[in-house]
Design a protein that fits this description.
The chain is mainly α. It has helices at 3-7, 11-18, 33-55, 64-83, 91-107, 115-121, 136-169, 177-214, 221-254, and strands spanning 23-24, 31-32.
Length: 257
């Protein structure tokens, strides 16, 4: 067997290579460096650009980027006002952060699957996953943060006593408190799990399709371009769904039953 044939990866090896994170540590204390670096750098870049646009904002004719930012912020603020009926200065900035950050992380999926790993390979990096939202560690970290905020809002708007009263009496009354508690635990646990798995599952599946298309070599263009155009809808929709569910959970926490 020639050296070239030995070096050529099989289909399974090619897929595994693109779906393996650059990690350090072991067990619970394993850190996926590519996820942390890419998500952090994207966050700094996009929110730094938005902060710069805010500093340079003018009451006159806005520039193209300022106009784009204002449209996005206005759209999100409108959605929050229609969904969240409590009083909080955190919910709108939280919704903006989630939508913009998740969208730019998802958008990394539109870069050809071999492009960034090839560049990182020149620096001796063996594995590099370019799309942070295909890592369940990130999606669960975000969903657990939302879950923590949801618990905080329950206590903030209802007080400890009001929240516990709701936990043990809704929906069947105080005489079925154990049943109410059981259903409440299922409901609350399901929220972060479904929130995380929905984003991870859709983005992981999309990345897998791109990888399978890349295996076609020079024949991939007729499939890659239509899928990329369709995927723009997916990455936008997933960012919007994650944002809206977060706002809905905050609204449910602020409402009194």
């Amino acid at each position: 067997m020639s050296t070239t044939e030995q070096a050529a990866p099989t289909v399974t090896e090619y897929i595994e290579h693109h779906l393996t994170n650059l990690s350090v540590g072991s067990g619970f204390w394993t850190f996926n460096l590519d996820t942390l670096i890419v998500s952090g750098v994207l966050g700094i870049l996009v929110f730094g650009a938005m902060a710069l646009a805010a500093r340079r904002a003018t009451s006159g004719v806005p520039g193209k980027f300022q106009n784009f930012v204002e449209i996005v912020l206005s759209m999100i603020d409108s959605q929050v006002r229609d969904t969240f009926h409590g009083k909080s200065e955190l919910v709108t900035p939280l919704a903006i952060t989630i939508f913009v950050w998740v969208f730019v992380m998802n958008a990394k999926d539109l870069i050809p699957v071999d492009f960034i790993p090839l560049i990182m390979g020149q620096f001796g990096v063996s594995h590099w996953k370019s799309v942070p939202t295909t890592d369940p560690n990130l999606t669960f970290a975000m969903s657990l943060t939302v879950f923590g905020l949801m618990l905080f809002y329950n206590v903030k708007f209802k007080g400890i006593g009001g929240w516990l009263h709701e936990v043990f009496t809704v929906p069947f009354g105080k005489w079925l408190a154990p049943v109410n508690l059981f259903f409440r635990l299922i409901e609350d646990i399901a929220k972060p799990i479904s929130l995380a798995l929905r984003l991870f599952g859709n983005m992981y599946a999309g990345e897998m399709v791109f990888i399978l298309i890349a295996l076609l070599g020079v024949w991939q263009l007729p499939l890659a371009l239509p899928w990329a155009l369709f995927h723009i809808l997916i990455i936008t929709l997933q960012a919007f769904v994650f944002m809206m569910l977060t706002v809905v959970y905050m609204s449910m926490a602020a409402e009194h039953h």
